[in-house]
Amino acid sequence: MGTATFLVYMTVFVVLWILFNVVGIFGFRWDAYPFILLNLFFSTQASYSAPLILLAQNRQERRDQVSFDEDRRIAAQSRADMDFLAREIAAIRMSLGELATRDFVRGELRNELRDLAERLEQATDEEEQK
Fold first, then answer.
1. How many helices and strands, by DSSP H and E, does the chain display?
2. Which keywords does this Swiss-Prot/TrEMBL entry list (predicted)?
3. What is the pLDDT of residue 94?
4. Long-range contacts for 31-35 (Cβ within 8 Å, ≥24 apart)?
5. Cβ distance 5 to 17 under 8 Å?
6. Over its length of 130 residues, how does the chain's per-residue pLDDT go in tens digits?
7. Contact predicate 36/44, CB 8 Å
8. In 3-state terms, what secondary structure has residue 116?
9. Residues 6 or more apart from 1 whose CB is under 8 A from it?
10. Count of CB atoms situated within 10 Å of the CB of 46
11. Which run of H or of E encompasses 29?
């Protein structure tokens, strides 16, 4: 009932109905003006179309609710995944904070080399003094 095809067929039907009943082809008129029988058909059609429209709306509401619930579930899962990843990234950052960097290791090695050089100088000075 809600298609363009239906509207075209219904328009052709009504035009033919009115033509046959006004012109009276073959002298046959089954529904004289004001077309009470045609009006009855339209009323019957309307009485069926209203509940069909309501049924379609109810089905659409159910589909929308299912879609909404699925979207909510996906959003909750996404949130849980993001929270998990945030915790993992925080743990990695903490672990990286405890790791020695290349510059730190070089600095420590330089300090040790200076200490060794000072000890070596002290040892050579002590040997010279003996």
1. 3, 0
2. Membrane, Transmembrane, Transmembrane helix
3. 81
4. none
5. no
6. 678 898 899 999 999 888 888 887 767 788 888 889 999 999 988 888 888 889 999 999 999 999 999 999 999 999 999 999 999 988 888 877 767 778 888 888 999 999 999 999 988 888 888 7
7. no
8. helix
9. 49, 52
10. 9
11. none
Q: 37: closest CA among 20, 8, 17, 16?
A: 17
Domain ranges of the chain: 100-130
Tokens standing for residue 52: 């069909």
Taking each helix axis from N to C terminus, what angle separates 4-23 and 36-98, rounded to the nearest 10 degrees? 170
Q: How far is CA 87 from CA 25, 76, 81, 91, in A?
A: 85, 17, 10, 6
Handedness of CA 122, 123, 126, 127 (dihedral sign): negative
pLDDT computed for residue 1 by the predictor: 67
* CA atoms of 109 and 104, how far apart (whole Å): 9
Rounded Cα distance, 16 and 96, in Å: 85
